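From the shared-data thread, chain only:
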Amino acid sequence: MVTADLLRYVQRKLEHGMSPEQIRQVLERRGWPKADVQEALSQSVKPEVRPTLLEAAPEARDSSPLEPGLMTGLFRIGFAGVFLVNSVVAVVEPNSFIKLMQGSFMGQFVHNFAPFTALIAVNDAALGLLILSGRWPNYVLAWSGLWLLAVTVIKATALR
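Structure, as tokens:
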């Protein structure tokens, strides 16, 4: 009969790194019936778990021909490119930005948008260069996210 003491003994020995076979030998030498020892071991030893499809998924992802660093680099270059090109457009063609801001909710409060085009040019250039550099990723990500949210609000309110 498997007792609570026998189960505790087996579990304690397993926790201390003793193999199930060693535990079985010790208990049988001490006179425990083989059936009780086997039952205590089967209740205490976790069955071997086969990998599921979910556990195998990382291997499938790792088989991609693109390395994670390469994918991050491509994203960084593309994301930075959006800001850098926008910065150049703000310098070369500021009227498109002024027209957009005048048509947005900002047009009700601001009458001179020329300083904003300079701000856009400097901000977008700084963000683009920081994204490329990879420095301070959390701050740059937050900054670019807030900036893009502001751009989204301006563009959405200019649709009317």
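The mean pLDDT is 86.
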